[in-house]
């Protein structure tokens, strides 16, 4: 970060600037300051920001919201471009099965203002999109929307409707920027669904008189692709026929059409492949992810990713009193970044402070739980001395929400030994029938035992509020991804920040630090991991009953992970990567 707070980028005002641009390439990626007129633009198919009326599906959207909030604190000109979905799903239980209801949402209710309309071409003709925005200091959210836009992640990943949404975000969002009078200093693509924003920029340059090769080089130098998926084979692909209907009608440059056509293999194209081609700057979201992500470009060469671990907006996710305390004792600065001597200052976090903040968190959790009845319709309320384990994250196979229930008798014995509770919550993606069945089996296991029925609680319709309540008010968080499959994860970061004891496998962002800094779950096979999990749960109960042990473990966790979980550190890492 420059001492005057400026970051540098050289805009290509016209074709004569190309020599200046090329002269700058050997020195820096970008060479003139970001400004309100030339902001950092961040593109995401998903935003999870309930305070502003946009509910996403999980960590990708939460990360986007946190990044914008951090940019606002750091006074960085920053524009987040995302769809506003006019319908959002909510989950509930009916006869033991997860069902969904759909709620219409109106952007006007949340302070968004209508700007104007833009259009792009679809198979049905010209499609008009409303442009709405909300301004926060030097940052803003720009959204595009229309009544039939549908819900987030509606349909399969390679469906026509999903492609329509992604093309609308790219071409419609880029047109919205121009409408408002903004030019992107950098295009940050948050996963491959946002590829079409960079394509729209390349088309503009190539169709306005720039040599096509120079337009490609320029676009590549000013585009950052952040990947969140470990295996390229898992990425969706689209057919040439789909591109003929949804993409090519929106391109003006014949050279670009030829360039894009050449990227198809057997009439199929992976967005990850062309995103790699259009973005020279590429980042993974943890050290482990950047090292093991298996991606190759169209020529078959392995792609290297810069490791920039995700972070969270500490001010948003920590108890306010706890956040202020961290600042008072010199752990974090005004932006939420760790201070130079934070490690020494952690000693001011004593057991008395820890128990006081956990009591405050328990009060908040009880207030949140009034809105979230369990699987039996019961409103939960916990005493300060009640012990709570929690598992809170998106329900998918590799995160293994079912692992603790493989041996129900052992789980029951652990909970009975302390009269402890286990809270299970997370969203199952629509159409994930296998996970729906696993959740059903978990609920059956609980229902068949009288003790588990009163001590294991499933809370449907997981959201930001519940995530905050549990991270601040439970005792021990459980995080069990199959090692090698979690890109980063951020739920565990909220737990560490809020002084929860972490039980986890050594995967994703957790693996950025040594496995000795938390209660690690490992083994040569899943059977060994299960045994280790139960041992760690027993150990967690013991730690919480011993003031010396609890102070030691929570100080150690925070000392190891505070720089890792800090969103201010994350954004500073991005800026350093882009401009130095």
Describe the model.
It is a single chain. The relative contact order is 0.11. The protein starts with 17 loop residues before the first helix and ends with a helix. It is globular, with a radius of gyration of 24 Å. 40% of the residues lie in helices and 17% in strands. It is α/β, with parallel strands linked by helices. The strands form four sheets. The protein has a nine-stranded mixed sheet, with helices on both faces. The protein has a six-stranded parallel sheet with strand order 16-15-14-17-18-19, sandwiched between helices. A two-stranded antiparallel ribbon has the order 3-4. The chain has two domains: 35-308, Glycogen Phosphorylase B (Rossmann fold), CATH 3.40.50; 321-565, Rossmann fold, CATH 3.40.50. Helix 3 crosses helix 4 (195-207) and helix 14 (408-418) packs parallel to helix 19. Residues 1-28 have low confidence and may be disordered.
């Amino acid at each position: 970060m420059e001492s005057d707070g400026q970051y540098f980028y050289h805009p290509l005002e016209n074709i004569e600037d190309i020599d200046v641009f090329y002269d700058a390439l050997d020195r820096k990626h970008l060479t003139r300051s970001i400004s309100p007129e030339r902001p950092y633009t961040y593109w995401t198919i998903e935003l999870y920001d309930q305070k502003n009326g946009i509910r996403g599906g999980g960590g990708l959207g939460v990360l986007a919201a946190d990044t914008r909030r951090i940019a606002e604190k750091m006074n960085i000109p920053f524009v987040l471009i995302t769809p506003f979905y006019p319908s959002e799903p909510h989950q509930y239980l009916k006869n033991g099965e997860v069902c969904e209801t759909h709620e219409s949402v109106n952007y006007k209710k949340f302070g968004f203002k209508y700007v104007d309309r833009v259009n792009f071409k679809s198979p049905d003709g010209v499609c008009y999109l409303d442009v709405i925005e909300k301004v926060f200091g030097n940052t803003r959210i720009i959204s595009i929307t229309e009544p039939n836009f549908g819900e987030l992640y509606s349909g399969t990943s390679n469906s026509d409707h999903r492609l329509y949404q992604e093309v609308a975000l790219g071409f419609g969002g880029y047109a919205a920027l121009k409408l408002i009078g903004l030019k992107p200093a950098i295009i940050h693509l948050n996963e491959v669904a946002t590829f079409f924003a960079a394509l729209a920029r390349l088309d503009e340059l190539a169709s306005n008189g720039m040599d096509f090769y120079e337009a490609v080089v320029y676009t590549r130098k000013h585009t950052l692709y952040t990947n969140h998926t470990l295996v390229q084979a898992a990425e969706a692909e689209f057919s040439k026929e789909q591109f003929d209907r949804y993409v090519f009608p929106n391109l003006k440059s014949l050279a670009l059409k030829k360039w894009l056509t050449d990227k198809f293999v057997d009439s199929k194209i992976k967005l990850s492949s062309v995103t790699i081609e259009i973005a020279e700057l590429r980042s993974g979201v943890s050290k482990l992810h950047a090292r093991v992500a298996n991606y190759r470009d169209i020529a078959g060469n392995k792609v290297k990713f810069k490791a920039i671990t995700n972070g969270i907006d500490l001010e948003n996710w920590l108890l306010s009193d706890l956040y202020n305390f961290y600042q008072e004792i010199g752990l974090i600065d005004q932006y939420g970044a760790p201070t130079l001597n934070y490690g020494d200052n952690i000693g001011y976090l004593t057991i008395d402070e820890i128990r006081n903040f956990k009591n405050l968190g328990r009060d908040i959790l009880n207030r949140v739980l009034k809105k979230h009845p369990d699987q039996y319709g019961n409103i939960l309320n916990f005493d300060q001395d009640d012990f709570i384990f929690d598992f809170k994250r998106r329900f998918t196979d590799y995160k293994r929400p079912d692992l603790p229930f493989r041996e129900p008798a052992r789980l029951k014995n652990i909970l009975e030994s302390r009269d402890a509770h286990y809270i299970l919550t997370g969203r199952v993606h629509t159409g994930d029938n296998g996970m729906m069945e696993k959740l059903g089996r978990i609920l059956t296991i609980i229902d068949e035992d009288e003790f588990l029925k009163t001590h294991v609680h499933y809370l449907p319709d997981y959201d930001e509020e519940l995530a905050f309540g549990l991270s601040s008010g439970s005792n021990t968080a459980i995080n069990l991804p199959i090692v090698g499959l979690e890109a980063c994860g951020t739920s565990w970061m909220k737990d560490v920040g809020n002084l929860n004891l972490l039980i986890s496998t050594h995967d994703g962002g957790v693996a950025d630090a040594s496995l000795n800094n938390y209660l690690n779950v490992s083994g040569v096979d899943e059977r060994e991991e299960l045994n280790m999990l139960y041992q760690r749960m027993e150990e967690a109960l013991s730690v919480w009953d011993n003031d010396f042990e609890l102070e030691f473990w929570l100080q150690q966790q925070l000392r190891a992970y505070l720089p890792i979980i800090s969103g201010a550190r994350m954004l500073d890492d991005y800026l350093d990567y882009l401009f130095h």
